[in-house]
Amino acid sequence: MTNLIGRLRNETRSKSNYRRLHCTIAQALSVFGDQWTLLILRDVLSGLGRYEEIQRSLGLSRNLLALRLRDLDEQGLLRREAISGTRRFTYTPTEQCLDLRVTILALAEWGDRWRPDPDGPRLTITEQGTGAPVTLGFIRKHDKIAVDIDAVAVKRRIKG
Amino acid sequence: MTNLIGRLRNETRSKSNYRRLHCTIAQALSVFGDQWTLLILRDVLSGLGRYEEIQRSLGLSRNLLALRLRDLDEQGLLRREAISGTRRFTYTPTEQCLDLRVTILALAEWGDRWRPDPDGPRLTITEQGTGAPVTLGFIRKHDKIAVDIDAVAVKRRIKG
User: Fold this and answer.
1) Closest to A29 (Cβ–Cβ): which among B35, B125, B157?
2) What pLDDT, on the 0 to 100 scale, is given for residue A31?
3) Of the candidates A35, B86, B117, B156, which lies 20 to 30 Å from A102 by C-alpha distance?
4) Nearest to B46 by CA among B123, B137, B136, B134
5) Residue B126 carries which DSSP code?
6) Are A38 and B29 in contact (CB < 8 Å)?
7) Cβ contacts of residue A140 below 8 Å, gap of 6+?
8) Are B39 and A25 within 8 A, CB to CB?
9) Contacts of B159 in chain A (CB under 8 A)
């Protein structure tokens, strides 16, 4: 038990260290580093808008869900609106949240490739209308031509 | 203090619940749901291969780093090789890890857009050779034509 608490304390401490890191990934993860957070956002992005719907979908504790929804509202990822005549709320995705779809689908594609389900892919991503399978990749901004990942250069600016 | 421990215990319990979720994102996140994990993988992907280099880059505790590196080796994300004549190891990315570049860069692009640094973008992603800026997006698998995210349909298979 003492060990467990010691380990948890370390985790907490390291989480706050990590928030101070100057790095775009650290910045992003300080928002949704908690694993539930991305799952909640996925639910809201897929149209679940009520507390009860999300709670049923994920089966996480009511306290934890309420806490996460409040954080996400404060961070600007969800818009919380009162349902008139009740004390309840609906949650809809903001622009910030819509822009997370790429990250969530990247994670989902990876999961299907490397932690596959024996019954086959859990996810299909297609082009509406044609039904052609699509996948995430790199695209040149000016002419929308696809670029292979091995031909992509990534440069991080080091804070001077 | 009691409250803190109570909260941490809940977090731990919910993390194990979350591992049982049948969902591709949950599967992926059960591997690198810890925020440090993606940062360690980013470091290894950017060429840092030694324990000391990663430790210096992230500034996290030696115990926590050793624990995460062992997990990542067991999960098949890193390859650990002994440096001959020493008791030390180098870490290199496996195929699984290389395939995470899309996710990591999606997260990084989001971070630069929505949690920007006052001094400007922390990351530039370009095409090698031409230097043209590139970004992540959807591409049709058969002909590599870019598809706008709003023209993409995502379907999850529900376990029957």
Assistant:
1) B35
2) 63
3) B117
4) B123
5) E
6) yes
7) A146, A147, B127, B132, B133, B134
8) yes
9) 117, 119
Enter the tokens of residue A23: 């790095």
- Only one residue has tokens 């319990």, namely B13
The band of A78, judged by pLDDT with boundaries at 50, 70 and 90, is very high
- Distance from C-alpha of A131 to C-alpha of B120, rounded to nearest angstrom: 39
Distance CA A11, CA B120 (A): 31
Rounded Cα–Cα distance for residues A85 and A82 (Å):
9
- CB spacing of B28 vs A99 below 8 angstroms: no
Predicted confidence at residue B118, as pLDDT, reads 84
Helix or strand run (H / E) with residue A44: helix A35-45
Q: Does A38 touch chain B (CB under 8 A)?
A: yes
B56 close contact with A: CB closer than 8 A: no
Residue of A107, A87, A88, A86 lying closest to A41 (CA atoms): A107
Least confident stretch, A63-67, A115-119, A149-153: A115-119
Q: Assign B3 to helix, strand or coil.
A: helix
Chain A / chain B CB contacts < 8 angstroms:
284
Complex ipTM tops 0.90: no
- Contact of B26 with B19, CB cutoff 8 Å: yes
For residue B25, count CB atoms less than 10 angstroms from its CB and return exposed for 0-12, middle for 13-18, buried for 19 or more. buried
